[in-house]
Amino acid sequence: MNRTNLVFERADKKIYRDGDKLVKVFDTSFSKANILNEALNHARVEETDLNVPKLQAVQVVDGNWAIILDYIEGTTLQELMDKNPAKEDEYLNLFVDLQRTVLSKKVPMLNKLKDKMQVKISAADLDATARYDLHTRLDSMPKHVNLCHGDFNPTNVIITKDGTPYIIDWAHATQGNSSADVARSYLLFYLAGKKELGDKYLKLYCKKSDTAIQYVQRWIPIVAASRLCKAPDSEKEFLHGWINVVDYE
Q1: Residue closest to 116 by CA, chosen among 171, 154, 185, 188
Q2: Cα dist. 22→41, 67, 233, 243 in Å?
């Protein structure tokens, strides 16, 4: 594998381009089960008609587990937004339309979103009363089986030269309630320091989908708590602020 063309690096993983392949190499801190589950999620989503990179292999590269995918040549939607601020509304409309398309799919073999969130809330750094309240709230929310990306933000959408959008990074894919996935995207805009864009996104999504904003907002404390268990210190104060909000106007 060619390790000279580093595309992306984080403390626990490195992503390389190797010709027409993308090689995601995981640190030894990642469990084999989680890596294989990510590959399985991707393979299952690939069976839909969504534009996603093709999974080529899962193998050990120099002692580390790696997932190998097709390399998609293009520009992320986030980069396009940053370079062309005058076209922000156009790109945001595309983003919302893509998310609605994702959420319209059914992938019945994926893990359940509610089950995953229950486990994460149990592991969150919250007192027993807060955890009980969040578990109760989550249990009361309607059970749906829509395909949820789990990390849908403009950096995970690649636009090719011919304008074809590809959706990447299906590590957190589950089946569940669409509004939970929308609440997560909303929080991701805020965490990226894009509060105004996040508010615009939420209003646009709810208008296009005929969803009450209040319904999505009911998911926000639950989603914030589920993110808290693995959140970096820089996010924790913000997430606690959302978790402590009980009612919204």
Answers
A1: 171
A2: 17, 8, 30, 37
